[in-house]
Specification:
The chain has a two-stranded antiparallel sheet with strand order 1-2. The longest helix is centred in the N-terminal third of the chain and has 21 residues. The protein is mainly alpha-helical. The radius of gyration is 16 Å and the shape is globular. The chain contains 6 helices and 2 strands.
Length: about 140
């Protein structure tokens, strides 16, 4: 039995799938840290969806609800357009502060009115790359999305 449990754990780690208890190091920092980790995971998945051909938020939602894009636990991710939009706004404020913007970071390409996400901007790609590097180092997503 013990070997089987270890095999399952190693298998899960190789795919980037983790149970919430495997995030104890983050959870010990408090609920705010866990909230931002979930935002980063979702932002990562949104970026993977655009890299895989999504051209709109509707495409992203479809991809997030029908397949596991980079091995993360989909149960942790919001999959409605309004939830994803809310989390993307949090990411824009987070990266805005990180990049020294005077407001939210312009992470997304949109329809010119700021309300129809159509891809990642250059700054959005930079933020995605930083997010990917962090999540890989933390063992949350595999190196190749």
């Amino acid at each position: 039995m013990g070997a089987r449990k270890n095999d399952k754990s190693a298998s899960n780690q190789g795919r980037g799938r983790h149970s919430r208890s495997q995030f104890e190091h983050v959870e010990s920092l408090g609920p705010e840290a866990w909230r931002y980790i979930k935002v980063l995971i979702l932002y990562h998945e949104v970026g993977v969806a655009f890299k895989n051909g999504a051209r709109s938020l509707a495409d992203v939602v479809g991809m997030l609800t029908t397949r596991n894009l980079s091995g993360t636990d989909r149960l942790m991710l919001p999959c409605s357009p309004s939830s994803i939009t809310r989390q993307c706004k949090v990411a824009k404020h987070f990266f805005g502060a990180l990049f020294g913007c005077s407001g939210p970071a312009p992470l997304f390409l949109d329809n010119g009115q700021g309300n129809a996400i159509q891809g990642l901007s250059d700054m959005g790609m930079r933020a995605w790359s930083m997010t990917h590097t962090y999540l890989v180092a933390a063992g949350i997503v595999p190196e190749t999305p």
